[in-house]
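Example record

One chain of 261 residues, shown exactly as stored in the release files.
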Amino acid sequence: MLSTLRFVIAIGIVALYTLPLMVVQEIALRTGFFSDRIVPRLWHRLTLRVLGVRVRMKGRRSRERPQMIVANHVSWLDILVLGSLDGVHFIAKSDMRNWPILGTFARQQRSVFVERERRRASPEQAREIAERLSDGDPMVLFAEGTTGDGNKVLPFKSTLFGAAQLALGEDKSRQVTIQPAAIVYLASHGLKLDRRERSTISWIGDLDLMPHLRLVLAARPLDVEVRFGAPLPFSVAGERKKIAREAENQVRSMLVQALRS
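Predicted C-alpha cells for this chain:
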C-alpha cells in the first residue's frame, strides 16, 4: 500500500511540472528567444530527483565540436542521466517517439529517431545525424542498439558512426570527436548492487514502463555513475568499424573498473 502511494505521489509530482515545462520548451523552439536546451536539462534533473536517482560523473567531458557521445545502454533511465548533462541530443529508436512523457520530451529535445531494423533507411538517418553534428549539436548514440543487463557491454554497431564522417563532408582537415561514456548502476539504498540486482534494475526487451518505474522507485536512492573516456578523433579517412571497436573497448573497460571499485 505504501509503495503504491509513493508511486502515485511521484507520478503526480512529475505531472505537475511537466506540462508547464513543455509549454515553455515549445515557446523556445518556436521563437528562439532562449536556448531550447535549458528546459530539457531542467526536466531531466528534476525527474531524477523525484525518482531518487543520484548521478555522479567521473572523467572529463570534451568540449570539442562536432561531438558524438557513444554510450552503453541499460535502461530508459539512461536518457534522464545523460539528458541532465549540458546540451545533449539523442539518437533514439523510432518507437520512443510514442512513449508517454519521455517520448514527448524526446521530440521537444530534437532527438533524431532511427529505425535500426530498416537497413535501407540507414543512409538517410545518417545524413540527418550528420547535419545535426555539423550544426554543433552534441549527439548521444547508444551504440549497442539495445539495452543490456548493466553487467557487461554488448558489441557496438558501427552503422551510425558513419554519420560522423558525413558531417565532415570532403574536408580532410576536420575531425569529429567521439567521446566514449560508460553508464554504471552501482548501488541501491546505499548498498552495492550485485549482478542479479543490477540486472533487475536494467530494462531489457519489451518490459512495460510503469512496472519498471515502480521498481526504480522501490530501489531509491539509486546511485549511477557516468564515466567519460578519452576522446577519439574521427576523420573523413577514418574507419568506422575501427573507431566503433575502440569506443566499445573503452566503455567496457570503464564499466569493469567502476564495478570493481
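Notes: The two ends are 37 Å apart (CA to CA).
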